[in-house]
Amino acid sequence: MADWWAYGGRVRRVPWWGVLPAAGAPVLLVGGWTVAAALQPGSFSQVADTISALAAYGAADRWVMTAALFGTGACYVLTGLALRRAAMPGRLVLMAGGVATALVAANPETAGQGGTVPHTLAAAAGFIALTAWPLLGRKQEPAAPALLRPAACAGASMVLFALLVWFGVELSTGGGLIGLAERMLAGAQALWPLAVILACYRSQHRLGGATPPG
Asked: What DSSP element (H or E) covers 2?
């Protein structure tokens, strides 16, 4: 009964198309950096070199990673629009992270010279937004999907924050694992919205069989 009465007597359902951008983000991001890295000279290292280096001016076939970043950003925006069962602040921050990701692609760095101020600011904003949105998207209702409940959302943001700190330390100290840390962070950030969408569908299937009290 509590489940059926959640959200004022009806469930805010995630639309059927929501899984497409949620699944598209990790596919585009991981696929993009994998293909783009394979097109680089033999000295390129996915462990030591950043994702942005693949889309930098002077990189080989930079359009591959540029397109992947634009596509990933669009997927985050569409996922935020579809994720109706999450709290609105979290959805807005997820979409903001998508816009920031697109701005990273629109403001590439130059190979060997590092990022411009707009590029750095966009990248920082994107990483922070995609780390914070799970916590801001949490729901207290008893019918909330498991991955939108406070404990799960807090745990997700904590893990993402730990990865963000690792990447920040590698970046600030010039460590040899910058690329690995960034890919771990970006990959986890891309997978979490998909996990949440799938949890929503599972919850909707369960609630779909519920009978309203009468």
From this structure: helix 2-9
What does the alpha-carbon distance between residue 142 and residue 6 come to, in Å, rounded to a whole number?
A: 7
**Is pTM beyond 0.85 here?**
yes
Question: How far is Cα 161 from Cα 185, in angstroms, rounded to an integer?
Answer: 9
Tell me the two tokens of residue 12.
């805010």
* Predicted pLDDT of residue 208: 58
Q: What is d(CA 204, CA 11) in angstroms, rounded to the nearest whole number?
A: 8
Alpha-carbon distance of 137 to 158, in angstroms, equals: 14
Cβ neighbours of residue 208 under 8 Å, at least 6 residues apart?
Answer: none
| Residue extents of the structural domains in the chain | 16-208
What is the band of 4 on the pLDDT scale with cuts at 50, 70, 90? Answer: very low
Closest CA to 87 of 146, 129, 151, 133: 133
| DSSP H/E element including 85 | none
Range with the poorest average pLDDT among 40-44, 67-71, 119-123 = 40-44
Which residue has 């959302």 as its token pair? Answer: 153
Report d(CA 184, CA 174) in Å as an integer.
Answer: 17
The answer, yes or no, to whether residue 52 has pLDDT greater than 50, is yes
Angle at CA of residue 49, ends 72 and 35, nearest 5°: 50
Could you tell me which residues come within 8 angstroms of residue 214 by beta carbon, excluding any fewer than 6 positions away?
none
